[in-house]
Amino acid sequence: MMFAKVDEPVRDGVFRIIRIGGIVALGLTVGTYMDVVVNVLQKGPEHISGGGFR
């Protein structure tokens, strides 16, 4: 049985933590702005055609 051997465990650990942090940050950012994007796509044509801008 072969095991993966890590040459520099501290560096690899830091890169994994940074990668996971980046993925979490991207996920939270997308979740925050998704409401805005959906609202624009659903109600944008109504506002354009009906002059709904106030």
From TrEMBL:
Q: Please provide the record's keywords in A-Z order.
A: Membrane, Transmembrane, Transmembrane helix
Q: Where in the cell is it found?
A: Membrane
Its membrane topology: Multi-pass membrane protein
Q: Name one GO biological process term.
A: protein secretion by the type IV secretion system
Record field: transmembrane: 20-41
Domain of life of the organism in this record? Answer: Bacteria
Q: Which Pfam families does the entry mention?
A: TrbL
- InterPro entries assigned to the protein according to its UniProt record, in alphabetical order: Conjugal_tfr_TrbL/VirB6
| One GO CC annotation | membrane
Instruction: Report what the protein is called.
Output: TrbL/VirB6 plasmid conjugal transfer protein
